[in-house]
Design a protein that fits this description.
Blueprint (H helix, E strand, L loop, with lengths): L2 E8 L3 E8 L4 E5 L6 H8 L7 E6 L2 E2 L5 H7 E4 L10 H11 L7 H10 L15 H15 L3 E5 L7 H17 L3 E5 L3 H7 L2 E4 L3
Parallel strand pairs: 3-8, 3-9, 6-7, 7-8
Antiparallel strand pairs: 1-2, 1-4, 4-5
Helix pairs in contact: 3-5, 4-5
């Protein structure tokens, strides 16, 4: 089992007696606003520390794992995508720098932009991208890292339905190519139904 949560309490947001999340699958976290979906993602890569209980990653308690090492394997994209650097290329390369991997070639970068359906020049200014384009740029950045786990918080919320399905189909196919695990918060029942091999519903 990839993640296990046992008797986890965090503030008044999360109260989970037991939860398991499998590896090599796409798990969708669904539920109403305020149910703790984003909070749960942050518990999985140690951005939040539970007030009570334990979170295990590959059977090791997270408290015993160095947070930087963990976040190189368990990479998170927040709901509001952040920019790292001025150009599209700098943003794509930044994840590789963080994970201490060699930079990607121009060919790899162009291929990644194709996967996330972002038709922009590598030397284009990232700050000029729309919200949906920034989401796709963030997806491209983490794809290049090839982490063990992708934690995605509403990764396609700024996309129209057709683009959302197209991008996620291509993205998930790519993650499966290197045995990645996707754990995704989504309000889109389309995405959850089409790509969620497991669905976890959270409630207040």
């Amino acid at each position: 089992m990839l993640f296990q949560l046992e008797k986890v309490i965090f503030k008044k947001i999360i109260n989970i007696d037991r939860m398991e999340i499998s590896s090599h699958k796409t798990t969708c976290l669904i539920g109403e606003s305020g149910a703790g979906k984003s909070t749960l993602l942050k518990l999985l890569n140690k951005m939040n520390i539970p007030d009570e209980g334990k979170v295990y990653y590959n059977e090791t308690p997270l408290q015993e794992i160095d947070p930087v090492k963990l976040r190189r394997e368990v990479v998170m994209i927040s709901q509001t995508p952040l920019l790292f650097g001025e150009t599209v290329e700098e943003n794509l390369q930044k994840g590789l720098m963080f994970s201490e991997k060699p930079p990607a070639s121009r060919e790899e970068l162009m291929k990644t932009l194709e996967i996330v359906k972002l038709d922009k020049p590598l030397d284009g200014l990232a700050e000029r991208l729309s919200g949906g384009e920034r989401q796709r740029l963030s997806l491209g950045r983490v794809l290049l890292m090839k982490p063990t786990v992708y934690l995605l918080d509403e990764p396609t919320s700024a996309l129209d339905e057709e683009t959302e399905i197209e991008v996620m189909k291509s993205f998930i196919k790519c993650t499966k190519g290197h045995d990645g695990t996707v754990i995704m918060v989504t309000h889109s029942m389309n995405v959850a139904e089409q790509y969620g091999e497991e669905t976890i519903s959270l409630s207040k």
